[in-house]
Design goal:
By secondary structure, the protein is mainly beta. The chain is built from no helices and eleven strands. The chain is globular, with a radius of gyration of 14 Å.
């Protein structure tokens, strides 16, 4: 059974930086994709960034140039470096892992709050 534990959220002023971490326990087959999503009250959860086990990345337009996703495959950990934070980045950030073999599956973390003050 795969479990994800996020850390690194908090309160920061606009223009500041935070680094989120998500550690996965359990066996995750390859290929797989790890990523970050975020959600604010009354809105759907949206993609922030994803990275495959081979290092291919994908970013939402709203965070390109400010956020960087990376991962340590040996440690089954994914990171999100968030720079130049804006108040509109305020949300609960969720980690997710998707795997595709032998059966497709996914797991979510519990979420970590990021609050950016103006």
């Amino acid at each position: 059974q795969v479990q994800l534990v996020e850390s690194g959220g908090g309160l920061v002023q606009a223009g500041g930086s935070l680094r989120l971490s998500c550690a996965a326990s359990g066996i995750i087959s390859s290929p797989n994709t790890m990523g970050w999503y975020r959600q604010t009250p009354g809105k759907q959860r949206e993609l922030v960034a994803t990275i495959t086990n081979r290092g291919t990345t994908n970013y939402a337009d709203s965070v390109k140039g400010r956020f960087t996703i990376s991962r340590d495959n040996a440690a089954n950990t994914v990171y999100l470096q968030m720079n130049s934070l804006k108040p509109e980045d305020t949300a609960v950030y969720y980690c997710r892992v998707d795997w595709y073999w032998p059966k497709q599956g996914a797991e979510w973390g519990q979420g970590t709050q990021v609050t950016v003050s103006s």
